[in-house]
């Protein structure tokens, strides 16, 4: 038996460490096993506020081992750029925390639950849909961040707001300072007249009652776009409804269910129709071989190009057709091939295309073939290896992460917008097979992408749910093997 009440730990992820505090029940005995609860903080909060000092303490007093953690990009956890509120990453954080819990001998791995407050409530529900090691989920004033973005956070004008986000991310890709927005007024007096929820939230998060150094209640505007394509309840039917408990009560403290925030001051870039794209001297139609959906698709009779042997981040040689380049996607270094049109002129302004390879593919295969063809038609074209694949960074390697792959597309757009010879208002995406699904997903929320096209597009999520070839037996095979793998590891 020990007298310790809390312990600060680091949770490992493939990208960075997550900072967490473990709360122990009274009379904690390391030789016993306890049910455990993961406590998730609200948007812009930290582990020392509601999720830890309030609910973490109360649940530990009730006999649970509780772990409260700082979300990626926030608090004491790693991740750049700071103050990013990324729903997909926040959902993934839960699995990494579960990974940590199941290594602790005093935690009963079959009795792990989650509790989320405000935005953490929506993330908790979303995580429990796919993370079957979570046996029960509860939320307190749970907020669906995707829904919130479309309404209060966008002033009920989500289209204009996404245009503003696109303009701000373009500015930052070119070196502008990040635009970080305060989610709450600085004082209770300043919150007067804004609504009860905002007043009570300010009275907690901006006063000695709950104010903490890492509880920034701030959000990076340029990285909000992904949230517009996210919904806490999508595919909820695949989870048992008995596993979810939600509460509208806020005892012992009211969290932040909705906060009306002003939009970015960045001027939205005007949308352009495809008619503003350069006219090719001839029309090229790419067809696919008659393979089944879900397999790698190949273009018919693609053209090949010369390549340079050099690796560069600057491209200014008129006789260069392809350059090997690298660009950042958070902590991961992406490897790509940049294809330039014949008679390339670095003083000119070109439309650009990002080509996205299939699941398990690499940039030298279909994505590169289409990129070469697009360069032949007068475009600057970028083919790259996905995060965790090919020559790009990320561990464990060979990981097919749909969320990371959509962010790869956005990072590729960042790179293209940093090039002086690329017209930032004429960037499109072409995706092949599963890359088509990722291209569509990225374009749904990133309004810097002005056009998107697919070749034999595959929705990887639907493929996993239904089985790779759409049969019940194949779907059962996937589920049985995933369950066996989780149990073994």
TrEMBL record:
Compositionally skewed regions (Low complexity) per UniProt: 253-273, 281-306
Entry GO MF terms: hydrolase activity
All copies of domain Dienelactone hydrolase, residue ranges: 346-452
Compositionally biased residues, Basic and acidic residues: 307-321
Gene3D superfamilies assigned to the protein according to its UniProt record, in alphabetical order: alpha/beta hydrolase (3.40.50.1820)
Xaa-Pro dipeptidyl-peptidase-like domain location: 18-141
Amino acid composition bias (Polar residues), ranges on this chain: 240-252
Positions of the UniProt region annotated as Disordered: 240-324
Pfam family, one: Peptidase_S15
InterPro entries in UniProt: AB_hydrolase_fold, Dienelactn_hydro, Polyketide_trans_af380, Xaa-Pro-like_dom
Keywords recorded for this protein, A-Z: Hydrolase
PANTHER family: SUPERFAMILY HYDROLASE, PUTATIVE (AFU_ORTHOLOGUE AFUA_2G16580)-RELATED
The protein's name: Possible hydrolase
């Amino acid at each position: 038996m020990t007298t310790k009440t809390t312990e600060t730990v680091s949770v490992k992820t493939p990208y960075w460490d997550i900072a967490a505090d473990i709360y122990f029940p009274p009379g904690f005995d390391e030789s016993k096993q306890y049910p455990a609860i993961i406590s998730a903080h609200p948007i812009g909060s930290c582990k020392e506020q509601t999720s830890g000092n309030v609910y973490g303490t109360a649940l530990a007093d009730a006999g649970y081992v509780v772990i409260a953690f700082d979300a990626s990009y926030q608090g004491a956890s790693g991740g750049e750029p700071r103050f990013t509120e990324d729903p997909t990453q926040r959902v993934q954080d839960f699995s990494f925390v579960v990974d940590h819990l199941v290594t602790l001998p005093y935690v009963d791995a079959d009795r792990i639950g989650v509790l989320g407050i405000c935005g953490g409530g929506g993330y908790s529900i979303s995580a429990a849909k796919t993370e079957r090691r979570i046996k029960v989920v509860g939320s307190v004033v749970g907020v669906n961040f995707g829904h919130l973005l479309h309404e209060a956070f966008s002033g009920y004008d989500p289209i204009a707001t996404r245009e503003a986000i696109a303009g701000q991310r373009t500015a930052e890709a070119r070196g502008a300072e990040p635009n970080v927005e305060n989610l709450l007024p600085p004082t209770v007096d300043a919150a007067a007249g804004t609504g009860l929820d905002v007043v009570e939230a300010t009275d907690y998060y901006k006063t000695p009652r709950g104010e903490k150094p890492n509880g920034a209640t701030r959000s990076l505007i340029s990285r909000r776009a992904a949230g517009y394509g996210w919904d806490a309840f999508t595919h909820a039917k695949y989870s048992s409804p008995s596993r979810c408990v939600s509460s509208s009560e806020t005892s012992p403290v009211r969290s932040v269910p909705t906060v009306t925030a002003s939009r970015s001051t960045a001027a939205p870039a005007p949308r352009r129709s495809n008619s503003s794209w350069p006219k090719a001297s001839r029309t090229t139609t790419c067809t696919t071989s008659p393979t089944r959906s879900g397999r790698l698709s190949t273009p018919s009779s693609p053209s090949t190009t010369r390549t340079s042997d050099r690796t560069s981040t600057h491209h200014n040689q008129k006789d260069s057709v392809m350059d090997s380049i690298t660009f950042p996607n958070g902590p991961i270094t992406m490897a790509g091939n940049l294809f330039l049109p014949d008679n390339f002129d670095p003083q000119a302004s070109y439309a650009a295309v990002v080509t996205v390879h299939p699941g398990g593919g690499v940039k030298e295969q279909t994505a590169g073939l289409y990129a070469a063809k697009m360069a032949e038609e007068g475009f600057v074209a970028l083919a790259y290896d996905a995060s965790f694949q090919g020559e790009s960074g990320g561990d464990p390697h060979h990981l097919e992460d749909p969320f990371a792959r959509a962010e790869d597309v956005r990072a590729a757009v960042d790179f293209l917008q940093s090039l002086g010879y690329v017209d930032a208002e004429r960037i499109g995406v072409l995706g092949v097979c599963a890359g088509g699904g990722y291209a569509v997903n990225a374009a749904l929320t990133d309004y810097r992408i002005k056009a998107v096209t697919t070749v034999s597009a595959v929705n990887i999520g639907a493929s996993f749910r239904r089985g790779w070839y759409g049969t019940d037996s194949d779907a059962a095979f996937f589920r049985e093997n995933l369950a066996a793998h989780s149990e073994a590891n």
